[in-house]
Prior knowledge:
By secondary structure, the chain is an alpha/beta fold. It has one domain: TPP-binding domain (Rossmann fold). It contains six helices and seven strands; from the N terminus they run E-H-E-H-E-H-E-H-E-H-E-E-H. It has a seven-stranded parallel β-sheet, with helices on one face. The longest helix has 16 residues. It is globular and about 40 Å long.
Amino acid sequence: MATVEAWQRAEIAGPSKANVIPKPEVFVAMMKRAKRPIFVAGHHVVEVPEGGTYIDYIIRIAKAANIPVVATSHIVGEFIKRGFQPAAWMPAVDITSRLQDPSWMGLDSNGQYDLAIYTGIPYYMEWLLLSAFKHFATHLKTISLDRYYQPQASWSFGNVSYKDWSTYLETIASQLEVK
């Protein structure tokens, strides 16, 4: 497999980098294997990839896999407009801090999460948030669902076109919707 470079070139990820998700079925398998996943969605989820609106894919995936969604910034209104109630609203830095805390029992007080999926957060900010997990919360696996390779995550797509990304999101949503 070819080496994938970080989209933000000036940053150095360190000796460990994200594994590349080669196809959407790998993401689906990770989702099914996770015991307590959580979605963290930023304001970029209102982007429109070819074939659909990104936030609509997030809602489909969250509903199909029964994953709580934490909406960051002002994006909570966009979810509510679509008839979807996120599990919580809080700043991205706050949810990242809570997920690192080994004593935090989660949004529902049922224990720590084992998989955090970050998406729609500006690249440079997501880089820093995921770096915090990489160094201070090794118990938590992370996935970046964005279309740019995010080396600070545990898993990430490579740098993909909008068309491929849209196809990946549709495949993920469709496969998770099939019970």
